[in-house]
Amino acid sequence: MQHTTLVAGLVLAGALVAPARAQDIPTLDEIVVTATRIPQSRAEVLADVRVLDRAAIASAGQASLAELLQSQPGIEIISNGGPGQPGSLMLGGYSGSHTLVLLDGFRIGSATLGLTPLEQLVPAGFERVEVMRGAGSHLYGSDAMGGVLQLFSPRGEGAPRLHAAAGLGDFGTRRFDAGLGGSQENLSFSLDAGRLLSDGYDATNAKVPFGAHNPDKDGFRNDHVLLRAGIALAADHQLDLVGYHTRGWSDYDDSAGPHDTRSDTTEEVLGLTLRSRLSDTWDSLLRAGRTTDDARFDTSFGNTDYHTDQYQYAWQNDWRLGASRIQASLERLEQSVSGSVAYTTRDRDNTGLVLSGQTRQGDHALELTWRHDHNSQFDDRDTGALGYAWLGLPGWRFSARVASAFKAPSFNDLYYPNDGFAQGNPNLDPEQAFSRELALDGALGGGALRVACHDDRVTDLILWQFDAGPALFTPGNVNDARLTGCGISYAREVAGWKGRAGFDWQRARDDATGNDLPWRAPRRLTLAMERDFGDWELGGEMIAVDARYNDAANTERLSGYALVTLGAAYQLAPEWRIEGRLANALDRDYEQIRGYNTPERNLFVGIRYQPR
């Protein structure tokens, strides 16, 4: 991206006084969950957590979860084409496989690929989304090297009410959602279901590797259902059930044709959570559930299918002792894989123990966490975090944190059988990271300011490369990397306008070569603004992304780009609302990955019924 784009963006940021929603202004009083596994205000936690509330999710229009997240400071997204194509969430320079994805505390995703298909997680229906940036293995174990993305289901409240939404957009996009929720005496429930369809556009172009371009439209369909039901067993005991099913069909290109290739992916969650207050100072949580990932690929070279089962159990206890908190958790994860691939090993299990403590003494706060994981595959692994905060100035906080993290190799990394092209390596070690962070949060000029910097050292990164001996692609622990960066964000409301501006600088470098890791933008700017005008609501956001490399050798450079999205809504009646969203309003031609297309300017218009 030309530096003039960033300069212009910074000038616009000064004029905007900032974000899309009041909830986007992150005060220290806002409640978050993912940072410590219990609801606490931002003032009580040291990790950086970004939140998308239900209003932002409901007005998403045609936007995917990834597109919603990329407008937030410090969150980078790349996608292999259009609707339903694989996407990756990169936090602080880490790859997508280094972000753990949870739904109401249950981990979801594929144990074969080691990824969660974000493109299949349609945001409609969720209550909120939290993204914790930075190492999280000390709380959640493997996969949380770069951070944690958690989706929360809504709890039904009040008299049962029906809500619905429908919309049409470019690329033949159609969206339909409906739900019912409420509570009565000691029962509560919330049910949401929907369908998203798109004729799509050509996912690839002639620059895609291996001649895989097929000049046709690559469509997408997704069906999803989210259920949450709860019962108050007694005054201090709440039992909740969550059920989630999402299935997506995506066309994609793997050759010049004429074969139409397609993926069919299903994610499911079924879980129970019992929350109990055992005394005035002791809270207990019991959780048990099963999540599944099914993926089938019909390709030009044959059909394959992969299946992951994850059985999860947890017992978490929290004690409040004056100005201090203590937490002890015991977890069990059992993973198994099946399908058309004959893995040499199909099962593994992990037992984790977490001990943590928080205390505040005057203007000083301290946070300490230790976790021990025993895994049937790689034996024992210890991680931890130590954080300190100084709150000597009213409304301000200076904090520092160090943490360690790891990611276990996937079943593909370890046990993929020799198919004449590739083979796994059962001798791999987990990837490891050590992170250092400094942050300043506070109120400035009537707004909320955050400045944060991090320095992460990553070792034993797993890389697949060609081995001339057996003439196969095999993985090895061959790479180390250093990930450094700083970000500043400011949110403020002035004269009815709500605004947010964020600027991020980062360097993600391969220690062996000194090269930048692919697809990481060294600079990134985000802006958003919104205002209500009676029955009208107008808003917009801009994302400016610097030039970055498409390959590890740093020979293919991707140009920078700036995207503008505009939104408008009109309240027809207290329960009826029309919404419109114009994405890529300036019709920019840009690439996130070489050879994969991105959407041109596109409009989506919808109508929503939401009783008050």
Explain how this protein is built.
The protein is mainly beta and 612 residues long. Helix content is 5%, strand content 58%. The chain contains five helices and 33 strands. The strands form five sheets. The protein has a 22-stranded antiparallel barrel. A hairpin with a 2-residue loop joins strand 11 and strand 12. The longest helix has 14 residues. The chain is globular, with a radius of gyration of 23 Å. It starts with a helix and ends with a strand. The N terminus is likely disordered.
| Global shape | globular
Strand content: over 45%
Q: Please describe the biggest sheet, giving its number of strands, its sense, and whether it closes into a barrel.
A: 22 strands, antiparallel, barrel
Q: Radius of gyration from the CA trace?
A: 23 Å
Total helical elements: 5
Helix content: under 10%
Helix-strand makeup class: mainly beta
Beta-strand segment tally = 33
The rounded distance between the terminal residues' Cα atoms is 45 Å
Mean pLDDT: 90
Indicate the low-confidence ranges by residue numbers: 1-23
Provide a quick synopsis of the model.
It is built from five helices and 33 strands. It is mainly β and 612 residues long.
Strand and helix map with partners:
Blueprint: H1 3-16, E1 31-32, E2 40-41, E3 48-52, H2 54-58, H3 65-69, E4 75-79, E5 87-91, E6 99-103, E7 106-107, E8 128-133, H4 137-140, E9 147-152, E10 161-169, E11 173-184, E12 187-201, E13 218-234, E14 237-252, E15 261-279, E16 282-299, E17 302-321, E18 324-339, E19 347-361, E20 364-375, E21 379-390, E22 396-407, H5 411-415, E23 431-444, E24 447-467, E25 472-494, E26 497-510, E27 523-533, E28 536-545, E29 548-549, E30 557-558, E31 561-573, E32 576-583, E33 602-609
